[in-house]
Amino acid sequence: xxxxxxxxxxxxxxxxxxxxxxxxxxxxxxxxxxxxxxxxxxxxxxxxxxxxxxxxxxxxxxxxxxxxxxxxxxxxxxxxxxxxxxxxxxxxxxxxxxxxxxxxxxxxxxxxxxxxxxxxxxxxxxxxxxxxxxxxxxxxxxxxxxxxxxxxxxx
Length: 155
Ligand SMILES: [Zn+2]
Ligand SMILES: [Zn+2]
Known about the structure:
With 155 residues, the protein is of the alpha+beta class. The chain contains three helices and eight strands.
């Protein structure tokens, strides 16, 4: 059973490789990389990706935003570590949503919250490029003659 106490005693920090015993929290961080194992993995609610690799990080590394080197796998009672750069990169989470105001179609930026009518490759308010998902295809589908039937129903 992987209690937080078991994590603390048996898992090393995936950034500094130090002990977690003196860390107040056991921090789990999703890595946006594909896990080729069962546990532990993260489910990304934005992309729907189910097997995202996870790292365990001590408080000091989390605060310092230190680069994470390893992902952790629990296989039975065994703890295995995987080098992050060897894992397949997952697509970035979608950071935009189409919005319709009356008859005008626009894009809502999920980074800064700005909504603008008309098509754009990126947010004109915060400068973020729109990524994740297929914006052009979604836009084209939303422009089709029967907009009510186009695209997944997102509320
Ligand atoms: Zn650390
Ligand atoms: Zn923005």
